[in-house]
Amino acid sequence: MAEIVSLLLPFFGLILIGYIAAKATKQPAETLGWLNTFIIYAALPALFFKLVSRTPIEQLTRVDFIATDIAATYAVFILLFAIGRLLRGNSFADCTIQSFAGAYGNIGYLGPGLALLALGEGAAVPVALIICFENALHFVVAPALMAAAGDDKRSTGQLVADIVRKVALHPFILSTAAGFAVAALHIDQPLAFQRLVDYLAQAAAPCALFAMGVTLALRPLKRIPAEISYIVPAKLILHPIAVFISLTAVGSFEPVWIQAAVLLACLPTATNVFVIGQQYGVWQERASATILITTVFSVVTVSLWLIVIRSGLLPLQLFP
Q1: Distance CA 265, CA 240 (A)
Q2: pTM (2 d.p.)
Q3: Mean pLDDT per 10-residue segment, the chain (320 residues)
Q4: Where, by residue number, does the polypeptide cross the bilayer (predicted)?
Q5: Cα maximum dimension of the chain
């Protein structure tokens, strides 16, 4: 337990510090812009490039791992969509945002720091692959479903062009692709460049966690959605279980890869869900509330998942 506390205290402590700082200084939301710019365009891309570029190329081509992880994530997405649409009668657009709230974890901001801290460098590659490919797919699915719902008024050509641009030019995708190229071509990086990348990568986790706390402070809880009763357990409990069962069923993955995938799956709802809702004017306040509530509950659930993983209680093979 002491080991788990030592892992979680700096992690959630930085979020709390950001939250308190935002409440104490009462800075406007716009002041967070440059910090987010640094995180998204410099620190996290440097971290992903570092993780991928220094990994043997054969470890980077595990299509079976990526496909299985994404299949588990979207199984949860489809389940939540069906509940919202068929049982609660929500609109197509509302169901889309609700389903993202239950399946789109805060893997970019929270994932690398926690996984590397808890599992070591062995978790680097699966973490980078999950973040890259899941985000890329979310960038495709979200506008496609909102277009199907009628909330996106762009033409088909404009929609496709925007999706391609967002996927191809996103800093996470570009940095990961550059890392792939360096690893595949066995390019020797100059020492000065490596040091620059290392400095930026070291800033990624603390800056992202602090920004997460500030973001939560700037989005007060105004409206608690009724759907929270099943979105919270779906995101924090069902999602990691689905990922674990899927990966162990397929088999042949290193234990740390399974552990890293489960750890990323148990993270709270991504702040991007609010951004998507805001972009289309759908489920905005309730998305903000879901992010806050899942983050608060994740203090307990992530701790429990870490105990299960670090104590060896997570079996690495369910099927003979």
Answers
A1: 5
A2: 0.89
A3: 79 91 90 91 91 85 93 97 95 95 93 90 90 88 88 78 84 89 92 95 91 86 85 97 94 90 96 89 90 93 92 72
A4: 32-53, 65-84, 123-146, 167-187, 199-218, 230-250, 256-277, 289-309
A5: 58
